[in-house]
TrEMBL record:
The keyword Hydrolase applies. Keywords: Aspartyl esterase, Hydrolase, Signal. The active site is at residue 315. Pathway: Glycan metabolism; pectin degradation; 2-dehydro-3-deoxy-D-gluconate from pectin: step 1/5. GO terms for biological process: cell wall modification; pectin catabolic process. Residues 1-23 form the signal peptide. GO terms for molecular function: hydrolase activity, hydrolyzing O-glycosyl compounds; pectinesterase activity; polysaccharide binding. This is Pectinesterase. Pfam families: CBM_2, Pectinesterase. The lineage of its organism: Bacteria, Bacillati, Actinomycetota, Actinomycetes, Micromonosporales. Belongs to the pectinesterase family. InterPro entries: CBD2, CBM2/CBM3_carb-bd_dom_sf, CBM2_carb-bd_dom_sf, Pectin_lyas_fold, Pectin_lyase_fold/virulence, Pectinesterase_Asp_AS, Pectinesterase_cat.
């Protein structure tokens, strides 16, 4: 793989806000940092369980560019926010104000951002808020769906930590907890991790399947596994902060990052956050942070990533595995743009990368490509997703060496947003073809696996 100069991964902010669910009248707003001329909000419930739910909110700015935003809405009686990521929240009764965090502070004209939260509900109905405001201006075209688009999940985790750096858990490091799992175990082993920063390289070997890493913080930002290896010392595939080879791996509510400082070297190095080479892996409410080559999806991988956030600069999702990103935010952090994917799908393998009902964001405008083929025949599909103005409109695919995008299996289907123009450089699936390229088809394999 090519060598490029890196930057330190930006830290994100998310906070816990617990509110009392009481009926209120009107929509709470806050003083705008800049006036909005209009907006469109997409609201959907992605999971629910007894007494709680997870929702995703997509905000599209239809007016002037905003630097600093505040989204307001009022819940029906019996609903409230308990945990947020992608924004901070404050509430008065059922009226909520959601404000930007530093990494998504700006929304350009036509651009979108996505955030999410966990909440409580009364267990009888789970309706959508009827009205949203952006910086005090009522949004047009607000929409919502009370029906979950993902399978029901458990409430956010609580309890005594298995791992705690301060000594209050069973182990002080994540690796110690992995080492304690018996080889070839056949039962689920849940490693709960107390909030904190764990600067270490973590390896889950192939003979230790069925392991879950679960952060106990109020958001993924509270529990961080991070290291700063780079390709200069370990090669690209060996530079990861976390290596997962054990099948049936699950990660929930935590961050995996590589904070190698690309500005400290004269020639670039890749620096991987997560090297995933595990069958039937699930990442839920996880952040993956890096620069070039953040997330290596290796050949053995089948993985389902849901309600999560991935950021980087160049080829930051790459490899030959099969993966579905569902209701995720994929963020190009470099203002000069970059390439999101570098798939190396084997030509004999039908499915590679699927971005399903996800959001592509970035700090630049019209300068980010959706992918380039690391191997000829690579397969990538963006389906029913929101593509912000960061996506290069006329030509969103590019070549890598002798591998050309025209001979790769690159396509789109029913995407929306300012970066979703249809033209001769943007192959689109037909409705008939799309029936074969669903999340379930990507992940089923020969054993019928369906984590949705």
């Amino acid at each position: 793989m090519r060598q490029l100069v890196r930057r330190r991964a930006a830290a994100l902010l998310a906070v816990l806000v617990t509110t009392t669910a009481t009926a209120a009248v009107g929509v709470a707003t806050a003083g705008p940092s800049q006036a909005a001329a209009g907006c469109q909000v997409g609201y959907r419930v992605t999971a629910q369980w007894a007494g709680g739910f997870t929702a995703a909110v997509t905000i599209r700015n239809l007016g002037d560019s905003l630097t600093g935003w505040r989204l307001g809405w009022t819940f029906p009686a019996g609903q409230s926010v308990t945990q947020a990521w992608g924004f901070t929240t404050s509430s008065t009764g059922a009226s909520v104000v959601a404000a930007n965090v530093d990494w998504n502070a700006t929304i350009g004209t036509g651009a979108s951002v996505e955030a999410g939260f966990n909440g409580t509900w009364n267990g009888v109905t789970n309706p959508s808020p009827a009205t949203f405001t952006l910086n005090g201006v009522t949004c047009t075209g607000s929409s919502g769906s009370p029906t979950p688009t993902a399978a029901p999940t458990s409430p956010p985790p609580t309890g005594t930590a298995t791992v705690a750096a301060d000594g209050t858990g069973t182990y002080r490091t994540v690796q110690e907890a992995v080492d304690a799992v018996p080889a070839n175990n056949t039962t689920r082993r849940v490693v709960t991790i107390k909030p904190g920063t764990y600067r270490q390289v973590v390896r889950v070997p192939s003979n230790k399947p069925h392991i879950t890493f679960r952060g106990l913080g109020t958001s993924p930002a509270n529990t961080v596994i991070v290291f700063n290896n780079s390709a200069n010392s370990s090669g690209t595939s060996g530079s990861a902060s976390m290596f997962v080879d054990g099948s049936d791996f699950v990660a929930e509510n935590l961050t995996i990052a590589n904070d190698f400082d690309e500005g400290s070297v004269t020639s670039g190095q890749q620096a991987v956050a997560l090297h995933l080479n595990a069958d039937r892996a699930v990442l839920r409410n996880v952040r993956l942070l890096g620069d070039q080559d953040t997330f290596l999806v290796n050949d053995r991988t089948r993985a389902y990533v849901v309600d999560s956030y991935v950021e980087g600069t160049t080829d930051f999702i790459f490899g030959g595995g099969t993966i579905v990103f569902h209701a995720c935010t994929i963020h190009e952090k470099r203002s000069s743009g970059g390439t999101v994917t570098a798939a190396s799908t084997d030509a004999a393998k039908t499915y590679g990368f699927l971005f399903y009902r996800s959001t592509i964001t970035g700090t630049g405008n019209n300068n980010t490509t959706l992918g380039r083929p690391w191997r000829q025949g690579a397969q990538v599909l963006y389906r029913e997703s929101t593509l912000s103005g960061t996506v290069r409109n006329a030509q969103p695919w590019t070549n890598m060496g002798d591998a050309t995008w025209q001979n790769a299996r690159f396509s789109e289907y029913r995407n929306t947003g300012p970066g979703a123009t249809v033209n001769g450089n943007r192959p689109q699936l037909s409705d008939a073809q799309a029936a074969t390229y669903t999340p379930q088809r990507y992940l089923a394999g020969t054993d019928g696996w369906n984590p949705l």
